Amino acid sequence: IQGKVKIAKERYEALLKDKSITPPLKSEIFRQLGWLYHSHESFGEKSQRIPLAIHCLQKANDADQYSGQTLYLLGRCYASIGKVHDAFIAYRNSVEKSEGNADTWCSIGVLYQQQNQPMDAFQAYICAVQLDIFHSAAWANLGILYENSLQARDAYACYLNSPAGLNSKGIHEE
């Protein structure tokens, strides 16, 4: 939170050396470490960071196989390097563990949209906004789908629900 990611990484790694930590705590540490690698360019090039992030998230999943959040983050990592099939599997497993996650449904929609499957994307975004009426990225991406289908009025209504949608035409993901 303070932006001291290198110190956080060092402390997470130090905690992992403690043999007495519980599996849930170990899972949480690996999840945080994995997301640090995914999110911060200060840890190197993407081609180096993402495999490390995936490794940490897989270790997190091994320590606690009931975490939908870990699987969601794993899906985000796979999606970021174009491993669409692996991303879909991770997202599907995340939904099975915690179906009430709007971020996961939005990310599924993004993958479908990138694969030129707009109807599947539409359904995923609808799931996201049903779970979280304030999910800005899902609203923005719904707006993009409507706009691409020449349904300007529906697109505008979606954009009104998403400040991000009015500011950009790219696909948004949270």
Note down, in words, how this protein is organized.
This protein is an all-alpha fold and 174 residues long. 74% of the residues lie in helices and 0% in strands. It contains ten helices and no strands. The longest helix is centred in the first third of the chain and has 18 residues, at 46-63. It starts with a helix and ends in a 7-residue tail after the last helix. Residues 165-172 have low confidence and may be disordered.
Count of separate DSSP helical elements: 10
In round numbers, the mean pLDDT is 86
Low-confidence stretches: 165-172
Helix share of residues? over 70%
What fraction of residues sit in β-strands? under 5%
Q: So what's the oligomer here?
A: single chain
Number of strands: 0
* Molecular shape: elongated
Structural class category? mainly alpha
Instruction: Output the helix-strand order.
Output: HHHHHHHHHH
Rg over C-alpha atoms, rounded to the nearest angstrom: 17 Å
Roughly how many Å apart are the termini?
17 Å
Largest sheet: none
Secondary structure blueprint with pairings:
Layout: H1 5-16, H2 23-39, H3 46-63, H4 68-80, H5 84-97, H6 102-114, H7 118-131, H8 136-148, H9 152-160, H10 163-167
Helix pairs in contact: 1-2, 2-3, 3-4, 4-5, 4-6, 5-6, 6-7, 6-8, 7-8, 8-9
